[in-house]
Design a protein that fits this description.
By secondary structure, this protein is an alpha+beta fold. Helices cover about 20% and strands about 35% of the residues. The longest helix is centred in the N-terminal third of the chain and has 27 residues.
Length: about 350
């Protein structure tokens, strides 16, 4: 009898413990309560179908909008004894910016070209005409006549940050469309004044990449690539720099393009002075004044402190230069400067910034 009671007690404890374990399993694995079985990835993961990181979707919407550009120019040889005509061919890339055929590229790709051919990714070959160019940003706008053009994705207020993953799309060495990728090493400004402050990236660029697209991980355009950045080494030899490449920020490139389309060129205002900021207070210390410039004519002197323009306090040199650059030439500005402790008001007529000869 005692052995029977012990056996029944063992059975009861086992069943009770089993019920407790079952309750805990149902509590911590809700899928079992729904009858769907074990859905935990520990039990169902298939190593052959593990998710991989890919930018295919981003490139599918952006890469078809990047074109190959071939420009041909006729020039005269410099040999004084045998001056002959010779053909010069330049290779580059471009970005389709609108459905009506406007294309952005680098000016050095199409400079002095007699004919410009654009090869689309769908194998169409089109002739392009030059709309205009801007030597300061090294940008040019082309126009082609075609239907069903694939337009590059763009955002009016895109924000580019250091560390963002970017991809460069272009035609290096005429190998055909090629993709390289990296990160944004330094961001560029979008103001018209600082037209050489590009986005810096370690995405690889080579000859033929100039004028191509720099896109983010969603395929949205963040810049127009420029592969012409070279330096001289200690033997005065010209060479490229590995891991240091540049692109014109999208917002600046778009502003340049829109102005070229509207008026055939980019017009920038300028006063003809240089200055530096203070660390602990607003204002710009004038460090140089170009002779004969609008600032010189107005009476601005070295060591003057520019504190306000048109009644608005000067914050930083960069914002001030951008504001002047975006002011139409001929506009009268009211400057307020501090000279030897005295506040002086003066009028200045904004001049036009012209490209060097």
């Amino acid at each position: 009898m005692a052995s029977l009671n012990a056996f029944l007690g063992f059975i009861f404890r086992s069943v009770f413990l089993g019920l407790i374990v079952a309750a805990l399993i149902l509590l911590f694995i809700p899928d079992l309560r729904m009858g769907s079985g074990f859905a935990d990835p520990w039990f169902s993961r298939d190593s052959s179908s593990a998710e991989k990181i890919s930018y295919y979707d981003a490139l599918a919407v952006s890469a078809p909008a990047v074109v190959n550009i071939y420009s041909v120019g006729i020039e005269v040889s410099n040999n004084p004894f045998s001056q002959r005509l010779r053909e010069r061919t330049s290779l580059g890339s471009g970005v389709i910016m609108s459905e009506n055929g406007y294309i952005l590229t680098c000016y050095h790709v199409v400079e002095n070209a007699d004919t410009i051919a654009v090869s689309l990714q769908d194998s169409r070959l089109l002739e392009a005409e030059m709309v205009g160019f801007d030597v300061f940003t090294d940008l040019a706008v082309l126009k082609v006549k075609a239907d069903n053009l694939h337009v590059m994705p763009q955002l009016a207020e895109s924000s580019t940050r250091v560390g963002d993953v970017v991809m460069a799309i272009g035609n290096p060495f005429d190998l055909g469309q090629t993709i390289t990728h990296g990160i944004v090493s330094r961001t560029g400004r979008n103001g018209l004044a600082n037209y050489v402050d590009y986005i810096q990236t370690d995405a690889v660029l080579n000859q033929g990449n100039s004028g191509g697209a720099l896109v983010d991980s969603n395929g949205v355009l963040v810049g127009i690539t420029n592969a012409s950045f070279l330096v001289r080494d200690n033997r005065s030899r010209v060479r490229s720099v590995d891991g240091v490449n540049f692109a014109v920020p999208y917002q600046l490139a778009k502003r340049v393009m829109d102005e070229i389309i509207a008026s055939g060129k980019v017009t920038r205002g300028q006063l003809g002075f240089a200055g530096s900021e203070f660390n602990n207070r607003p204002g710009i210390l004038v460090t140089a004044v170009q002779p004969g410039s609008p600032a010189d004519v107005a009476g601005l002197l070295v060591n003057d402190i520019l504190v306000a323009i048109d009644g608005i306090e000067v914050e930083t040199a960069t914002k001030t230069l951008d504001r002047i650059a975006e002011t139409p030439p001929g506009t009268i500005m009211q400057l307020e400067v501090v000279r030897d402790g005295n506040r002086i008001a003066m009028q200045v007529v904004v001049g036009e910034l012209r490209a060097p000869e």
